Amino acid sequence: MSLPPEKAPELKQIIHNHLMKINIHDKIREVLAETVRDDTSSTHNQPLSEKDFLHALQRRGIIDSVMNDLHFAQLSSSYFCSLANIDPCRRYLYLQVLGGKAFLEHLQEPEPFPGQVCSTFTLYMHFRNQRFRSKPVPCACEPDIKEGFLLEVHKDEIGEGSRMADGTTMLSICDPVHLVLIKTDTSSETTLVSSHLLDWRTVLSSTSGKTCIAVELMGVGTNSKVPAGIMTVSLELYPPLTETISPDIITTQQSLERQRAAEKDRLFLVYAKQWWREFLEIRPTHQSKMVKIFAQDENGVNRPVCSYVRMLRAGRLLEGPRQAARFVSLLAQEKAPVVGSGVGKHEQWCTLLAFLCRGKGDCEDHATLLCSLLLGFGLDAYVCVGTKAKGAPHTWVLTRGTDGSVTFWESLTAHRYLHQAIDPDAPPLVQQPKPSHPYRTVGCVFNHQSFLANCQPSDAVELCIFDFQNQSQWKAMSEEALKSVCSPGSSTSLPPVPPLTAPSLDPAAASNQLELEMRYLISEHRKDLDLATVWDDHLSYLLSSALSAYELERCTGVSCGNEEFQDAVRRAVPDGHTFKGFPIHFLHRNGRRAFATSLRSPFCDEIICCRGDHVRLAVRVRVFFYPENTCAVWVMFACKYRSVL
Fold it and tell me: Which residues, if any, are the signal sequence (predicted)?
């Protein structure tokens, strides 16, 4: 564990107090006096040096004795309580990563030069609502990930939170430490390398309260059976247990938990097969409907789709449902990679931690996260599984109002659509509502407690009635059956849901840095075209209000402030001059990538390469941060010049 700079004086004081306690000064004086006497009686006339004194102290065993007295175990109470500011009445698990090895994919990776930009590994961790991340280290066959994380072990029951967890209590805590390893390449693109659930309870059998294990990290998706590498991990309990638990008891407990989970999974599978047979008997065409009961996660584990949704509260990080939709839409979309050129995609749903750490995923990941957040905001939300235009499989979110209204939420864009069903039995002259949404069919809907399959004559979204209490239109699964395998803590194979983390970056500093980079790139580009660049700082400042209004509109759907912006621009542009402006939106902060993308727009290229009389250029950047350091980046390019007929 790294020591904060402000804690260094405290550590020095602790060491000083301990040295005074063992009367180290008298011992040193005694050895020095003896050394001087020996030197006086000797025949050589060389004066004693500092090296001679140190050698004498070492020969008498004084240095070794002091180092043993200052061992970590002896100072643990002072170290943790005084330096880490933790509660001495609580139990903690100190997890230390001691490095990696056998990451064979990077066997030929050259060692980076100092200051060279290279691909990096970052290790993310979640344990009982506590999240951590390591510092990025260069990708290598033996990555130098060496960091410590202090995890609090506590009970969740009311009244138990302030009590120190004993061995029996900790043995019953089956929550794993979820480790996620992310690779970030030189262009800031992220790749999920491994997702591992670590059972930490082996440390309960250690008499010293400390154990070291090699954790084999498996690949993900199609490589979930192939090792990605090995991470050496040290586990230490603080304070150590007074009575350890036998390794046999720990093994038996883990075995019983696995057997219990396997039996629940078996019973649910038997029930799901029976439920599916009943669904097919209703109408033969149901065989072709998009009814998805199970989905495979990044580790190749088949889980009920309901287990991917949880009621997730964002605390004060998100202000409401629409801002939650905006946040989810800022996470990039990327389909699971497939090796080879086979037709079709490899479907892979991600656990929430892997999705958040990677910062991108497919439509299923976005929809389950948005549904979880909307449930947290008190809405009656469901994930819809169906198709969109051209029959492409798709998932989106549906909410039902208390007045019976149905709203579709597109998790990839944050767009909302009010559903108005078409009545197929209405007379031909009756005007029918035209659907504004892109969805074509819906086969099933689900959330953390419910799973319903569409058994209406047509699965066309525009004809569907979303009355889930009507058993002739929707066939529901047993809530008890779903609860047995999908509720929190029902299975050791279900990773706990992590909390969202607050943004750690400064939006003003990020905006300024990216704006300076944009100015430099524009100036260099114009220099290549033999064009001078003169900046209008006042005009650049005026563009800020427009960028704020654009982001507010994306969050709320309401446009405001446009009149004031237009009036300010009119005042800043003299008579006889022309103004041109072009806003563009990004999900990243890579200046060169953003500039290259901007130049592909003819409107932006026209502004950046503007020629004319008295040309003045302006650029403004606004970076808006959301939880998990996701960002909405708005850049507005503008110019004004004297019109010449």
Answer: none
Q: Tell me the whole-structure pTM to 2 decimals.
A: 0.84
Quick one: tokens of 53? 């004194």
DSSP for 586-614 reads: ESS--HHHHHHHHHTSHHHHHHHT--SEE
How far apart (Å, rounded) are the C-alpha atoms in residues 204 and 195? 24
Spatial separation of the C-alpha atoms in residues 283 and 615, rounded to whole Å:
70
Question: Collapsing DSSP states into helix, strand and coil, what is residue 334?
Answer: coil
Count of CB atoms situated within 10 Å of the CB of 416:
17
CA atoms within 13 A on the CB side of 53: 11
Let me know if 124 is exposed, middle or buried by CB neighbors in 10 A (0-12, 13-18, 19+).
buried
Q: In terms of pLDDT, which residue wins out, 81 or 225?
A: 225
pLDDT value at 139 more than 90: yes
Q: Is the pLDDT of residue 221 over 50?
A: yes
Residue 325 has pLDDT above 90, yes or no: yes
The number of helices, as runs of H, and strands, as runs of E, in the chain is 16, 23
* Distance from C-alpha of 17 to C-alpha of 456, rounded to nearest angstrom: 79
DSSP states along 382-431: EEEEEEEGGG-EEEEEEEE-TTS-EEEE-TTT--EEEE----TTS-TTSP
CA distance 176 to 235: 13
135 neighbors 123 (Cβ within 8 angstroms) = no
| Residue 253 contacts residue 247 (beta carbons within 8 Å) | no
Which tokens sit at 63? Answer: 């240095």
Position 459 confidence tier, pLDDT thresholds 50, 70, 90: very high
Sign of the CA dihedral 585, 587, 589, 595? negative
SS (H, E, C) 21-53: HCCHHHHHHHHHHHHHHHHHHCCCCCCCCHHHH
The pLDDT score that the predictor gives to residue 74 is 41
Does residue 440 surpass a pLDDT of 50?
Answer: yes
C-beta of residue 304 within 8 angstroms of C-beta of residue 501: no
Q: Give SS3 for 466.
A: coil
- At 200, give phi and psi (nearest 5°): -90, -5
Cβ atoms 124, 351 nearer than 8 A: no
Tokens found for residue 233 = 């991990």
Give, in order, the Cα–Cα distances in Å from 388 to each of 27, 47, 219, 382, 384: 83, 91, 32, 17, 11
CA angle 227, 230, 235 (to 5 degrees): 135
Question: Residue 245, SS3?
Answer: coil
Sole residue written with tokens 């005084």 = 82
**CA separation for the pair 290, 464 (Å, rounded):** 14
Task: Look up residue 207 and give its DSSP letter.
Answer: T
pLDDT grade for 85, boundaries at 50, 70 and 90: low
- DSSP-assigned letter for residue 448: S
Residue 105: closest CA among 179, 194, 186: 194
Q: Does the pLDDT at position 237 exceed 70?
A: yes
Q: What number of other Cβ atoms are within 10 A of residue 628's Cβ?
A: 20
Res 156: pLDDT: 56
- On whether the CB atoms of residues 325 and 476 are closer than 8 A, the answer is no
DSSP conformation letters of 127-167? ETTEEEEPPPEE--SS---EEEEEEEE---STTTTTSPP-H
The pair of structure tokens assigned to 241 is: 């247990």
pLDDT band for position 3 (50/70/90)?
A: low
Measure the CA–CA gap between 411 and 332, rounded to whole angstroms: 11
Tell me the residue ranges of DSSP E strands in 257-379: 294-296, 302-304, 332-333, 360-361
Specify the pairing of strand 332-333 against strand 360-361: parallel
